[in-house]
Amino acid sequence: MPENEETTEQVESAPPETDGAQEAAGSEEEPFDRARAEEKIRKANSEAKNLRERLKELEPLAQKARELEDAQKSEQERLTEQLTQAQERIRNVQQRAVRAEVRALAADQFADPDDAHAFLNLDAFVAEDGDIDTDGIRSELGELLKRKPHLAKPSDTSPRPPRPDRSQGSSGNGNRTPSDPGAIFQGIMNQALQGR
User: What are the pLDDT digits (tens) for 26-43?
Assistant: First the structure.
């Protein structure tokens, strides 16, 4: 009987199976239950609907909170923010104006006027008072053409007359080769006429 006591102790000391393992084993054997699945889907849809309704209710409150936060900002912070935005808009307008001026001045000398402003630092042509330095742009364009002459317009812009190509067309009957289609046709015609 002592042997039975040892086996009893061994069975008691063995760890019991975890609930997760039992659920996994149960789920493998458990058949699909359509009604249960539909109930879970209905429940999830109902929760989602409630959350959407709640979100719609809370959106106006969030907007009011943003408005209150903006109202609590100091006047100086608001003005600083507005000033920064205005300066950025002014800078963008100045850049566009300088690009337009560069294109206009480069149109006479450059093959593609858009190439000119790609090689120049446009900020260098805006004075502190916002005026555009047209003379500076002209001198920089001249320097750019010296450094990169391939950007310039061709000096002779008149259309060239086409040159005749003597290798095209018929050059008489004297230079025909045996593989020439005209020579082959002529040989066929001669044979046909002689064979009559």
Answer: 456 678 888 888 898 899
